[in-house]
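During the no-cost extension, the postdoctoral fellow (Dr. R.K.) reprocessed legacy sequence entries with the updated structure-token encoder. One reprocessed record is reproduced below for audit purposes.
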Amino acid sequence: MTKSELMDVINSELAAIEESKSRIKKHAAKLNEINPLSLGQELVVNGYSHSGKTIVVDKVFVSDRQGKDVTVTANMPVNFTATGYVKRVDGTLGSFTGVHNVSIEESKS
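Re-encoded structure tokens follow.
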């Protein structure tokens, strides 16, 4: 194969990958529609930081193993995720963000 032919094959494969990622992102957005977590909920943090404290949810999404939004990364979805500010003892919201995850496999949806 010539250099030009090889470049054509590579470009074709890259286009197929991008098309696949686009479809994955659309399916992840549909999966988020059945997310059992919702905005405004008060949840106990079970993520890596501020564990055991309460958050008020301000964002919900489907996340991958690294905790990133699947509609952005197009990676394998593993969790329904909610993030929000940690509540202080007096009930006001602090400046720290906490995370609550629910495994997609274990969810009741």
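The longest strand covers residues 93-103. The mean pLDDT is 91. The remaining legacy entries will be reprocessed before the final report is submitted.
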